[in-house]
Amino acid sequence: MRNLSPILCGLLVLPLMMTSCSKLGAFDASNATVTPQPLEVSADKVPLVIAGRFPEKYFKKNAEIRITPVLHYAGGEVKGHTAEFQGEKVRGNGQEVSYDIGGVFSIREQFPYDPAMIQSDLYLTFDARQKGKNVSLPDVKVGSGVLATATLVSHTAASATPALGADAYRYAIEQRQEAQIRYLIQQSRVRQSELRTPSVEQFVETLRSIKEDAKGHALSSIEISAYASPDGGQQLNKNLAQAREQSSKEYVDAQLRKLDLDAAVSTRYTAQDWEGFQTLVRESNIQDKEVILRVLSMYDDPEEREAQIKNISVGFRELADEILPELRRARLSVNYLLIGRTDAEIQEQYEKDASQLSVEELLYAATLTDNADKKASIYAKATSLYPQDYRAQNNLGVVHFTKGDIEVAEACFDRALTIKKDVAEAHANKALVALTRGRIDVAEEELSQATTTKNYSEVLGNLLIAKGQYGQACQQLAQSITPSAALAQLLNKDYVGADKTLSQLEQPTALSAYLGAIVAARTGLKEKAISQLAEAIRLDRNLKDLAKKDLEFAGLQADAQFQNLLK
């Protein structure tokens, strides 16, 4: 440029200066990518990542740009956090962007979910300045709509199995009554004084009750076990134990003949009751107790044991007075059943006069019908007759929950907890109520107090879905054939598993059909998707409005069958 005039040189430099200092232009939407696309609800939030690029020669050296993601939807908008960027000649706190080579940026955001967001548009808005002056840049649309399939957990929670307070009613309850006949040393005769002891008298009274109330009792068997104490020779003790076995059996047989009862009587004897001896010594306060127990552990031979123990002179005298007499005995045991009302008798009594039923019979009566209104009536009667039994209130709430009366159900669960504050079943059920309302924090707190309930895994599985932890939810619901399990698999992108679970449901519902339509749509099975969606709408007309907006079916919008279905 040595031979060029100054004017010409100036003309050549001017375009370069104008290029670097010209006014900022609009940001091209192709320079931004949003993940996921479309946006998707997770844990009651709409998380997203915007990966952007400023092209070379775009970001002027004297420019500042503030970018804010904004989600517009019917009735409102929500703004995200603002990211700040600046040119090379600007002094500030923003991310510096090179004019010559451009730069990349990333914006992470999560919006609190609003159901209206299912139809929405995501924009990037710009607040730009150049040379300290405001520059107007148009908003740029970078996404449309929010996939809200995860919010169906409020419906799967509503269809989950609530926890019942179990009744303790049993038609036949096993009972056992025991008695003991003690014998004098080296004798096997049953003494009259022993027959007047409380345990023997109660044994006989039990037999008499069984005879007098054949409808309410059923005699199963009688067992006799006779023993000899471990002092004296083994043969002597064997003969004594056998004789005591025989004398006690003769007494029992006589009682059965007197009452005209028929029962199987089994007998056995123990010649030297070392086991009973050891137990009584361990529980006693006799002198040299530990020494005696050590002898028992050191010697297995009965005669050697006896000899060593007799060497402990003071201890043996205490044994002879306190322990050995208790081992010269026969134990009598009668096994029988307490027979309650039959199902038909309980139902008949309920209709006649429910007040004559026990609380266990009333709670059991509710399990004898599949009619929800009848169940509610029985549980309501139980709450009236037995107001302090939390199970009646909880179970009444369960019936209302399964009918969809969530507020009434919650009131019942609260009353159950008023009666007994640590009722695991009521806490588990309140966790389900919270999940139907999207209250994840409340559900988590309630479920922490319900770890012992039978439905714990199912409730926890739904909670994990609501928290966006789909893999863990699948693990918790692995043994569950429910819409909740299918939803967890669907959100975890296990479409084969979700389809299998839905096909195995005992009672398909509108919800399960809707989930089946989503699975089919995601796997490109258009005809099946439309068929499943038609079934879902047939069972619940409210699902038509949801399907019209649901991005799961965006690929079917141009299909005539789909359009006709949603008219």
Concise account of the structure shown:
The chain contains 24 helices and 16 strands.
Q: Could you characterize the architecture of this molecule?
A:
The protein has 567 residues and is of the alpha+beta class. The protein folds into three domains: 21-147, Immunoglobulins (Immunoglobulin-like), CATH 2.60.40; 150-165 and 347-477, Serine Threonine Protein Phosphatase 5, Tetratricopeptide repeat; 172-339, OmpA-like domain (60s Ribosomal Protein L30, Chain: A, 2-Layer Sandwich), CATH 3.30.1330.60. The chain has 24 helices and 16 strands. The strands form four sheets. Strands 4, 5, 6, 7, 9, 10 and 11 form a seven-stranded mixed beta sheet that branches. The chain has a four-stranded mixed beta sheet with strand order 13-16-14-15. A three-stranded antiparallel beta sheet has the order 1-3-8, with no helix packed on it. Strand 9 and strand 10 (133-135) form a beta hairpin. Helix 19 runs parallel beside helix 21, helix 20 (495-503) packs antiparallel against helix 21 (510-522) and helix 21 (510-522) packs antiparallel against helix 22 (526-539). Residues 1-20 have low confidence and may be disordered.
